[in-house]
Amino acid sequence: MPAPRTHRLPRRATATLVIVFMTTACGTTIARDVDPGRDALGTTGAVTAGHPLAAEAGLRVLEAGGLAMDAAITAAAVLAVARPHMNGVGGDMFLLYFDSGTNLTYALNGSGRAGSAKTLEELKAEGLERMPGSGPLSVSVPGAVGAWAEGLRRFGTISFAAALEPAVELATAGLPVSERLAADIAGAEAKLRREPEAERLFLPGGAPPQPGDILPRPDLAETLRTLQEHGPDELYTGALGRKVVRFLQEREGLVTHNDMADYLPEWVQPISTRYQGFQVMAFPPNTQGVTLLEELALLQHIDPDLAALGHNSADYLHTLSEAIRLAFLDRNNEVADPQAMRVSVDELLDETRIRELAATIDPAGSAPVLWTEPTEDHPNTVYVIAVDQYGNVVSLIQSLFATFGSGLVVPDTGIVLQNRGSLFRFEEDHPNVFAPQRRPFHTLCPVIVLSNDLPWLALGTPGGDGQTHTIVQVLNNIQLFGMSPQEAIDAPRLRRLGDGSLAIEDRVPQEVRDALEARGYTVHARSGWTAEFGGAQAVLIDQIAGRRSAGADRRREGWAVAY
Predict the structure, then answer these.
(1) Active site residues
(2) In the structure, what pLDDT confidence band is assigned to residue 13 with cuts at 50, 70 and 90?
(3) Residue 30: per-residue pLDDT
(4) Closest by Cα among 270, 289, 283, 290 to 349
(5) Distance set, CA 133 to CA 8, 137, 343 (Å)
(6) CA distance 232 to 388
(7) Residue range 277-367+457-536 in CATH 1.10.246.130
(8) Nearest to 78 by CA among 184, 162, 200, 189
(9) CA distance 504 to 117
(10) Domain ranges of the chain
(11) CA-to-CA distance for 359 and 43, rounded, in angstroms?
(12) Can you tell me the distance from the alpha carbon of 365 to that of 520, in angstroms, rounded to the nearest whole number?
């Protein structure tokens, strides 16, 4: 008999909550009482995910004897149904995997490449000055489905069809609409109305669904069943893939049949840096994992010691902001598809260079003078952690990029297509310049932290550019300031915006915000628990006792379970 489970749904800051959801095992509804202030604790396994149904589905896989990869891919597939505006069959995925059999960490790149129907010169000749933020030109090859199957092939024990089954059952039954989902769809109403298929699916009856409604997903259910029957290649070389390409070509998109057929998920070497006595493992370019490592490397060399500055003091928050600023200069200028980069990860993280940059950070200093414009935020991503009884760990993140991605839905499939291609640049001297079959830059940033070569912490978050900001703060809260995962996630945090101003949750004391204003920062105080600051999830692993402590963020729909 499985050990008792503990559950965590961080939706509000108030006392006990009740959430009602549909179990994919039997189609019945059950209610669980949830204390939003505690970690989920277990000694065998743990799962966190960006929606309760996904975490529960993943945990059921572990309880049935499945491994971390089985649980993670099952949860990822459920998220494709449960968070339709943030991820799905038409999106991309990255994961880190720690294998307890070899004590090695692996990285799986499930991002697609740009289509090859047109060159940069041809796009410019049509009058374009930048890649559109939505629409057919913004769509690159969707990589998530192929990566789900590849993760299972190498490190799973259940079939691809079995991993998709809970997602199929949820799509067949229809998705219960939460308050968060209702608000997110309402916020995207104008975008959805621009496309008839998107409007038909997500504005049923001509209006956004309300909390408590059931959102029908029969087209997506049939797509998932087709993938179960024919396998992941159906999306890339089968009739389903031909339907996707035909739809895009009719809209003068860039993705061709050959682009889809050529797609392969890629196992790559993770990158890492030492921080506070730990080894932080991150994903290499084409993601901003190197940017996270650069921020940590800079903070490692701060004098005085970072912890001595005090949690969320003005000195501490200024120092974080400066590390982010310096790392983002490198990110914005250099990080891209590794085949196009001008510098290597090793050069960006060179210790001599990092020491010199860190020496420019004065914890008591003032805000730097910047001449930049605010950038659009794209916080639409989901994240999964799975830890099994053997100590295998998956840290997985997947996304459409913008809300409802490109805004395009392939008719009669339920597939929302991502807009990752919109991140390409048109400046020919920039490494992230558009080129056919080049991977675009991604903000997605899964993390596994090792202690003595074994997993100590799995950590990640949605949040676009702000992902590294959130990860650094949650990691410091746990390691430097002794918080549990849930305490570390709940603690108020900062986000440095593209124009150099600081968004800070107003639970940071007023005197700290005033002190930062006095240093020359523009400070935007944020009330409540908003998605602007990400949706962090973490599992802390006690290597001696074997205990798993899991937390998830009330700023979104995160859910943590353990047994």
Answers:
(1) 381
(2) very low
(3) 27
(4) 290
(5) 36, 8, 27
(6) 25
(7) yes
(8) 162
(9) 44
(10) 55-267+400-423, 277-367+457-536
(11) 43
(12) 10
